[in-house]
Amino acid sequence: MADVRAVRLEVFVEEQNVPVELEYDALDATSVHLLARAADGTPVGTGRLIHGAEALAETGRPGVVLLGRLAVSKRVRGTGLGAALVRAIEDEGRERGGLELELHAQVAALGFYEKLGYVAFGDVYPDAGIPHRSMTKRLAR
């Protein structure tokens, strides 16, 4: 978890000025965390899957799992790592019985997720002072 937290600190807290007290939450303890490392072992990407009772409490919809805290270090953006992390989180969601994956995307990242098959819904809303929009995708079996 120290390496996961280090990537999130770099991307969200230092780069995007998200308050550190908002970045880490109780869902970290029950989520599945993925971590990507560069060839030299340096952590460069992460994301988490919220599933089970926690996902149901967040969405109110059975069968929905949540992708969150997707972060890729600036030095490896544009390499396909972000898309690979999303696909891996989708796989984890399927393994845990997820039928649909929901995420809360920064508006600036909507195009990235749309290319991966996600569809936006609802209005734009602030999260940690950054405009976001919810997105969803059916998880094919």
UniProtKB/TrEMBL annotation:
Residues 1-140 form the N-acetyltransferase domain. It holds the Pfam family Acetyltransf_10. It comes from the Bacteria. GO terms for molecular function: acyltransferase activity, transferring groups other than amino-acyl groups. The lineage of its organism: Bacteria, Bacillati, Actinomycetota, Actinomycetes, Kitasatosporales. PANTHER family: ACETYLTRANSFERASE, AMINOALKYLPHOSPHONATE N-ACETYLTRANSFERASE-RELATED-RELATED. This is GNAT family N-acetyltransferase. Keywords: Acyltransferase, Transferase. InterPro entries: Acyl_CoA_acyltransferase, Bact_Acetyltransf, GNAT_dom.
